[in-house]
Fold this protein.
Amino acid sequence: MKLGKQLIITIVLTLTLVACGDDSQPASPPAAVITPTTTPTPVPDWRKRWLQGIPCRLPCWEGITPGITSYDEALKLLSADKRITNIRTYSSNIPKTAYNNKAEELKVIEWSWGGLAQGEILTKSDGYEEVKYLRPGYGISFSLKEIMAAYGEPQFIQAYTQLDDVGQTYGLVLIFKDKGFAIDTGGIKPITLEESLTFRDFVIFGPDIENLKLQIVVRDEWLQSWQGFKDYDYSCWKIAYLINSCGKLPGKAP
């Protein structure tokens, strides 16, 4: 009898515990937090600062202005730039040629941008050692459209073609004389003058266009005034072979 009472009490307690238990539904997993996706802002290319006039507009480049900045000051500014490596200085001679009236001794600064791209600064060893010629040497291309958007139209164009041991080649120089710089391109393929035409680099010569001739063949009789995107006469540069007809550099209006 005593055992029966214990069994009844056990059953009652069990039923009471079940009745008092948590009768809620199983907990749902937490809702996923949806983070809106955003397109990362591209990092500005510091090699295009010159198109934005940062830190100064051409003919000033990174604080160096041909015709004003001295050789020593330019070397100091380059040495303080952490992007620049492998700076070296040396002297070089330009021989007298048909396109250079006299032999000249130059002082040169060369540097790299941490890779194969290489810039250079030239000055004459004539007692007046301000920078004469500067090529940043970024190693990337710039379109004519973005250059003109930043600095307007050039004043002069020089289009030339030649025959040499590699066949016929073509060249183009656009001179922004009032801004003190020029852009040049060329190769074995014919060139079409259009906004999408790209230029590998630019050269800063400052207030004196004669400084441009230290490294780029520019002949006064070849220069034509810029008249927009039109056809321009090629000048013939005859080397080893005779070009019977120079032809024209075709232009394509925007």
Q: What stands out?
A: The longest strand covers residues 85-94.
